Amino acid sequence: MDSEQLSFHAHVPLSKYSKRVILKTIFDRSSDELVGERVVVGGWVKSSSEVRKEPLPQPPPPGAAAGDVAAATGPKDVSCGEVLQTRISFFRSIMKVLGGTHNPIREKMESVIQKLPPPPSIAILQVSDGSCVSSLQVLVDSSIVSPSQVMPTGTCLLVEGILRQPALQGKRDIELKVEKIMHVGTVVQDKYPLSKKRLPLDMLRDSSHFRPRTTTVASVTRIHDALTQATHTFFMNNGFLYVQMPIITTTDCDGFSDKFQVTNLLGKETKKELVTMDASEGISLESVRASISEKSKQVEELKRTDSNREALAAAIQDIRKTNELVAQLEAREKSKLGTSVRTEMVNFSEDFFPRQTYLTVSGRLHLESYACALGNVYSFGPRFRAQKSESKKHVAEMWMVELEMAFSQLEDAMNCADDFLKFVGKWALENCSEDLKFLSKRVDHTIVDRLLLMTSMPFQRISYAEALEVLTQVKDKKFEANIDSGVFLTEEHESFLVDEIYKKPVIIHSYPRELKPFHVRLNDDGKTVAAFDIIVPKAGKLIRASQNEERLSVLTTRIKELSLPKEQYEWYLDLRRHGTVIHSGFSLVFDLLVANTTGLIDVRDVIPFPRSHGKANN
Amino acid sequence: MDSEQLSFHAHVPLSKYSKRVILKTIFDRSSDELVGERVVVGGWVKSSSEVRKEPLPQPPPPGAAAGDVAAATGPKDVSCGEVLQTRISFFRSIMKVLGGTHNPIREKMESVIQKLPPPPSIAILQVSDGSCVSSLQVLVDSSIVSPSQVMPTGTCLLVEGILRQPALQGKRDIELKVEKIMHVGTVVQDKYPLSKKRLPLDMLRDSSHFRPRTTTVASVTRIHDALTQATHTFFMNNGFLYVQMPIITTTDCDGFSDKFQVTNLLGKETKKELVTMDASEGISLESVRASISEKSKQVEELKRTDSNREALAAAIQDIRKTNELVAQLEAREKSKLGTSVRTEMVNFSEDFFPRQTYLTVSGRLHLESYACALGNVYSFGPRFRAQKSESKKHVAEMWMVELEMAFSQLEDAMNCADDFLKFVGKWALENCSEDLKFLSKRVDHTIVDRLLLMTSMPFQRISYAEALEVLTQVKDKKFEANIDSGVFLTEEHESFLVDEIYKKPVIIHSYPRELKPFHVRLNDDGKTVAAFDIIVPKAGKLIRASQNEERLSVLTTRIKELSLPKEQYEWYLDLRRHGTVIHSGFSLVFDLLVANTTGLIDVRDVIPFPRSHGKANN
């Protein structure tokens, strides 16, 4: 069968590993080349209609195989059933008159109609195989298969047929007249979530396993693929080495993000130590616990307002210390017997890893190990934040592109980030024009203009101080949050700079030290740090970058200032103790780049299986 | 400074984002082009030696800048210190005679020697920047910097100098005479783990942050990078779309692997419900718990012997049910008060995700969602197994390449897997010859031959039954494990087939159903399933593949047979309910491919930050 099939595709190559022709290879060719070709295609029905055999205008014989005409005209003998078929609408109107659900005459009549062979007809199916936006028009005669079996949206088909010019002139150049059905995967129509046409994407978030069958998510997937390939190509062209960063880690990358813990202790046989204790002497455990609860609330408040990071880090540190106190109290009380307070301690030494481990928030610290040996390196993988916010731009699990360059200063990282965004933007414009056109029409008509803007001119570069100055001079706009030195710019501030003032992507650099993590290099003024963010229209903050502190003493001081657990960072400090180097890098939230490119700004619509707070379905 | 630097590299391009010349671009050029060029290079010292100034033969002026000669000859005036320097070895022999540690004369003399200026000398440094195996010979005159500062292995340098022909004829074509030191990152010699030469890699597993500075791990990283690029290129060339698979999942992919749990409940304020209960009536909770413990041991035993998977799945299921019983008992007892048994239940509804979530073991099930809409798709990401085995080929966190193809049968997957391995193998041979040569010498002299074997001929394809037959006919070899139908082939069996019988990679297909997961398609004989493994010399099992069951009824029966929790798989069954399609795919342990290509067969040596049982250092 293999060689037979290979022989009859003269002008369209077979898909290498599936003995069928990919639809894109059909649409990439002119119809002149294709008419009369016998091909096998597979895909899923996007929409369908049915025409009665008689009214269908007979297409001029397309010079194809003789069997074609026979198939198009169908069985010739006019049976009794066929005569009855022509009268069905008449019977139906009688039935309406008879009415009621339990009318015996109606029931009898219905059963007769059901037993009738279906009227000869042709099912016209729009079939997509995911290789491009366009669907192929596929015609199936009812003599081959019952239309009701193949017409429901979502039906999977593998068919063999002849390509021909459409009988009815329309926007299509080519259609397929089916001669043989090789596979039908039916659909349970009332249970299939895509049976309804043009369901809004947010309705489909609970059926993420079916979303790629929508034209929109299929386009998003192709653009996601293109941006992935562009990313690897950019770094390969520029001599970067790809390095896998660990997902499970014991290192807290910034000191203030909520992290997921990885364990083997839950839900198996209980391995936790239950500690029963008497807390009546000295410090009351209950009161300490109450203070933790109070402090937690403060932290949540600080996080919510997204304000001073140093204050946040200090508050978190405070809780950590109080927790330690609790642990000590518990340990001290452990040997004593009593019943007044019952609590528990998790004994991590019994876990798979003997220390507490987390899902990584960022791979940049680990990536430095490789930059401090091999020069320019990058990574591309999933990163995790157990953030309960309802922001559209963040879910628990997102992919990030991270890079680190030895012998490189902040300005080098700016140039690299600028080049990178231009490269991947151009790649999308060149390789995804059909998908961008579709999404422009369906989702956001500004996507192409935004890509052109990003790829055609240098980004605006301003310092944080300049940004504040520019914003405070704005008179005709009242911002929700005040513009104060030492606090974060809000999304509103950032988008005003990008959309209203500079009208292009903006690089904001030289942030106050309180606003950036401990590892960012302190500038000579002692107040600002060598970091920048890139803000783009619509998506907002796409890239966070920094030159990282290469001076051991400064880094140690920063860790102490923020009361971070120094023992966790010993390996990181080692990189400064031995052969330290000036280096810089950035991280880009890749899913946000996809969101920005496709115009679907809620990342839950562009991530294949999004995991957010309170949601994890499969 | 930027433009000035750019101007003086006539023949060697600057690294785009770091204002230095990458060493590989120097070695890629002939020395004729390079002599006399002024360049900036950066890197880390791999080894060093020091020569006294006088005995160094004066190189013929290489027609370079006048400053060169002056720098090479150094300061001309002969100071008192310099005279003393020439006598140091004489003083040292006197000191030896004086002996003892507290001899005042010796101490006085030592302090005089220490205060002397160092003798004029030239430090000869082998500097690597990670871009290739070779190091650049860099000469630094002691008048520029004290040799003791730059000579220790691991020192980081950024220097400017003139390229010239080496003064001493040797294997090198070119060396750098330093004129300006721009950065030195020193090393604390006795604390730097790489100070010793040629430390075995396994000694370095606890210092994984420094491993990339070894020539071996640098080579591994470059090969890893090349194989990554080759992987993406193969799939791009063949029309596959890249899709990110979720890391956090609620779905158990095969029903028998140990999984990591993801939670937000531990180590914070205690959120677990402590249940105090009286278990004196009816079934004794303690006896149920004892039986769980007993059953767990059985499971461990089954896992250890790596035998019948169906028995294993059943045993695990049995434990699951018993655990459920415990939970029910606990729930029933919850409202009662008592103290005889204390236990606890984790309330997952209070966790970040409201259901129990795991780190994914495999992305293939999720990938099917995309194949069943878009045709050919692949993924490349980290996968996790909480396996306590001490196998060299597995650690807790490994990257896998997975693909899924719609309208594709098992044979198509075989062709694809065969093509894939040949493509990436050829890519490595063409792009990593220097690294392969180095690793051949240092690690395993068979790596190039094995790559040639893999890329030059079709793999042997045999069924599991044929494999058994061939193995039972082996007379001159006694295998440790018996060859019985329905049990796994051991590594010993597999490597015998590959190394001794066929002498090339072997594809073993049509396994008994008991040996493969529930989703593998049942063959028409009702006994075997449509799966295959690819076994290669040295690494062993590199690829696991299957055509997955597209028939809803068969799949449902399989899930029932294995007592798997059907509710977890409802979304997966949905793909069969609506528009089901024949499809196949495979998964490849990428880190094992790297191990195989580099000859470092212990994957802990090729994974950047390996996580294995009892180990997670950073």
From TrEMBL, chains A, B:
GO biological process terms held by the UniProt record: asparaginyl-tRNA aminoacylation
GO molecular function, one term: ATP binding
Stretches the record annotates as Disordered: 50-71
Keyword Aminoacyl-tRNA synthetase: yes
One Pfam family matching this protein: tRNA-synt_2
Coiled-coil region(s): 285-332
Family annotation (Gene3D superfamilies): Bira Bifunctional Protein, Domain 2
Residues of the Aminoacyl-tRNA synthetase class II (D/K/N) domain: 350-612
Keywords for the protein's UniProt record, in alphabetical order: Aminoacyl-tRNA synthetase, ATP-binding, Coiled coil, Ligase, Nucleotide-binding, Protein biosynthesis
InterPro entries in alphabetical order: Aa-tRNA-synt_II, aa-tRNA-synth_II/BPL/LPL
GO CC terms of this entry: mitochondrion
Annotated protein name in UniProt: Asparagine--tRNA ligase
Organism of origin: Actinidia chinensis var. chinensis
